[in-house]
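Internal tracking record. Fields below are filled automatically when a chain is submitted to the structure queue. Please do not edit lines marked as system-generated. If the sequence contains nonstandard residues, flag them in the REMARKS field before resubmitting.
Queue: standard
Priority: normal
Entity type: single polypeptide chain
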Amino acid sequence: MQGAMVRHQQPATGRNKPVPRGASRMVAKEPLSARLPKPNFSIFKRLLWPVLLVAAGFGAYEGAQRLMPYADRPITKIAVQGDLSYISQQAVQQRIAPYVAASFFTVDLASMRTELEQMPWIAHAEVRRVWPDEVVIRLEEQLPVARWGEDALLNNQGQAFTPRELANYEHLPQLFGPQRAQQQVMQQYQVLNQMLRPLGFSIARLELRERGSWFLTTGAGSAGPGIELLLGRDHLVEKMRRFIAIYNSTLKEQITNIARIDLRYANGLAVGWREPIAQPAAQPAVAKN
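SYSTEM-GENERATED OUTPUT FOLLOWS
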């Protein structure tokens, strides 16, 4: 009988070590901070910023209210700037006197500017504060270019204004037209005057009538006595070019005898001659003894 052979096996080491089973098995524990729910502070952050802003604004307002009596001073200086030819600083000072009685922060600059621009000779006004007690006013005067009708002047923008005295501006050209056409008449005057100037003419009168016809009168000058140009309703520049061409070729030598030129024709013009000046009759000689 063969004996049974028993093989003695060595216990496994390392990775072959048996894993404990059953209730005796050990489980690794997670940290407490990982197992507890994390607090959510996003709502508090959203509420915090508005609260801080409101608090800062309230603090600034309270600080300003407390400092205002010390910072808000009476207006003691008025500086008027600009090249003034037609209006005096004294007149400006008198005009704004009711406004400068206020303090530095309470003075109404917008109303002051409006009041100044209502003065006839002021085209534009700028008003600003200068710390601690000064108001600076910069003025731009009207630039009179022509008379408008009998009672007003026109500036270079075609805007009418009415100074108290017009006697000193009779040398300016006189423009007429409907009130709505002030800028149109001014623009037409500037164009036509520029065309006539090389000939030695200047415009003394330009009129736009209600039906749309234009009438121009030149002033007496180096080119001779004034003449009247009848321009019609449209194509004024083309008609003026035609007049200039015919004037240089034909009419220049006879301009002193011409009273008016009608340019309302399609391809030509008509000349109205001056009445000849009657020569005084010769006095008969008286024989003396």
